[in-house]
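Sorry to interrupt, but I need a hand with the structure work. Could you write out one complete protein record for me, on any chain you like? Just paste the record in under my message, thanks.

. . .
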Amino acid sequence: MKKGRKCLVMGLTILVAAAAFWTFIPLALAVPTATNIGVVDAHGCIGAHVLVPVNITNVQDGPVPSLIFDIKYDNSVINVSGVQKGALTENWQTPAYCNHEWGTRVAIVYDSVDEHTIQNYSTGSVVVLNFSVNGELGATSVMDLSNIQLAEGAPDYQIGIAPAKNGTFTVQLGDVTPGKITGQIKTITGTVMAGVTVTLTANDSSVVLGTTTTNETGYFNLTTVEAAEYYVNSTKLRYWDNSTLVTVQSGETKTVNVVLLRKGDLNDNGRFADAGDVTMMLRAAVNKLTPDWRFDLNNNARLADAGDVTMMLRAAVNKLELL
């Protein structure tokens, strides 16, 4: 064999061997992480229950189908009495938790629906901790997260981590007076609405803190409201939901009057899918009228598309009820 041919064969052998070598080296795949996961400073009165959201910020290399973390605190000051789902995990399984001398371990897993995993770039609450306050006035406790585990999805199910964002809980004055939220709900034409479901949620989570219904004159009352920002959410079949942000001060009675809009009543005359509503939907479909959110009857985030036009036309001839 000629020298040149020997060199060529040897070179090919080395390349094949190198390729085989690299084939068996495991690839360093990215696992889930985030900018941080943790809590902000919180406070509450002796004997009160205070909701503290655990938030994740800017998820990366996800999606995330489950997570576990420990939160350390002084249980002579506060103690976890319950754990609820957060805004990003509202469709997940109910959180599991166990209290220890040093604090609480929390675990939560999704409901096996891939679309419900925590997606990349997501920011929001993953769980909400319900702390009972039992410390003395002015006492403080750390709220430090550790052992943060962010699960990777199929097929590897590896574990990622994220930096902790810690906070401090302070026991405040016990003479803070609860507030109240009251109001009346009407239609666009001024008719009072009975039987409207009214719920109260914290501004920084989707946890329902209170619920009631309007009476025969359209009035509702939500009492024992701590000073904070809330959403007052009003819902009734055949009407668009309404969420109103309200800030309640200590001992304050806040009045929130709401108008619920009927689905299909684009011209605000109290009648849905009448000739005027049909005309407005058709004009919006061909860009002769600028639509608002009420033109999205099929809830696909596209205003006055073919589906919306069809729904309005079918409702106009009593072939469809706009619920």
